[in-house]
Amino acid sequence: MRTAIGRATLCATALIVSACAFERSVTNENVEKLDPSGIVAGESDRLDVLRQLGAPPEKSIEEAGTRSVSADYLAYEVYEQRCFRVGFDQIWLIMPFRWCFADFPYRLAVEFDDQGIVSGVYTTRRDMIWPPFQNEADRPPPTTVQYSGDLLK
Length: 153
Known about the structure:
Blueprint: H1 2-18, E1 20-27, H2 46-53, E2 69-70, E3 73-86, E4 97-112, E5 118-125, E6 143-149
Antiparallel strand pairs: 1-3, 2-3, 3-4, 4-5, 5-6
């Protein structure tokens, strides 16, 4: 009897563990390789920025075609989504449980004044979390590095 219960417990545990998965998707990974060192606040204009960095990439797969562009701001962002999934959808026709967290872990931003001249260049890094094992309280504050300008003063 104990052997049967032990085997049933082992099989149930194996089934549950096999239904768990970590998923991660990253969009615009190459943004982190962009070098903003040639962009100088007070001297560079929009065309200089676009020549050096190119047009800002698409934000995410879901928002394909939209870009962070305005008259006074260009954002080059990495979009990342992390999910933890428990699902038996391959075995039974039930919906899986899924916890996801999406954010922009890296952002390169360029701000312009009213004449289209660069007023500030900065990057921001944020740590990502794995739900449901971590939450926002576990995440340290973002780190911002200013390359030029007085944007953060």
